[in-house]
Amino acid sequence: MSYLDNIRTFVRxxxxxxxxxxxxxxxxxxxxxxxxxSQLEDHLSVRLFQRTTRSLTPTEQGKxxxxxACEILESVDNAEAQVVSITDNPxxxxxxxxxxxxxxxxxxxQVPAFLKAxxxxxxxxxxxxxxxxxxxxxLDLAFFLGQPEDSNLRIRKIADVERVLCAAPDYIAAxxxxxxxxxxxxxxxxxxxxxxxxxxxxxxxxxTPEGPKRFAVTGRYESxxxxxxxxxxxAGQGIVLKPIxxxxxxxxxxxxxxxxxxxxxxxxxxxxxxxxxxxQDPKTRLFMDFVIDRISKDVRDSGML
Length: 305
Fold this sequence. Notes:
By secondary structure, this protein is of the alpha/beta class. It has helices at about 1-15, 20-25, 30-45, 60-85, 100-105, 110-115, 170-175, 180-185, 225-235, 245-255, 275-280, 280-300; strands at about 50, 55-60, 90-100, 120-125, 140-145, 155-160, 165, 195, 205-210, 210-215, 220-225, 240-245, 255-260, 270-275.
């Protein structure tokens, strides 16, 4: 397996552009990462990367080897998946991504039961509100809210999730309860924005009598962590737009109150993305089926759909 390990390491170094990043991803030390690349270069009698103290650049030979290396690993993965499918004994690591709110409240609680049912599988759950790239980040599947941009990926829809605009009673007492999206803009309400590097200009898509409309809301508070926005809203700092399942407990307890109810947010799609190849992997298929079945029940039983 050492040669395959070297190839896997090469592919991750190529995709991530860094020995240290590839080592962290593969859970090996930088020294082992460098050693595997050197072994592969010795075996092939070529230099795969040009190395300096500040950069790592694939050579022409490295670029040529990458596509073939990916095909080798895909063939091995497919062969292993066929054997595992026959024996019904999935093994190996499963790399899963999800937004913070979805991951913490819906996905993470299901992982222990899944791992108990399939003891030879490990789950590496990465939570982030930014958009992820399944290919370059080595992910098996990614849960998300919204619409995917990559048409080459497969999508499995889970539900259309209701959302709500809400704020703390203290904020409403100080600034008033806006009746609509127009009031959010004209009265310059403090809107709490989810934003990450590369995100477009911030707008909220709300339902009006004329149909969906975008409102260019403003606010001084921004974060790439959706739970931080909820904390700010609870502290009376502004208005937050959230899937209901993320703030349901606060709404029931009165810590947050719906606002701009004349123009509620448009529901948002919850789904998961995967490549066609990953769908063939039994552990990927089993995890999707296991989690989606339970997510659907949780959301439905909570009256959130």
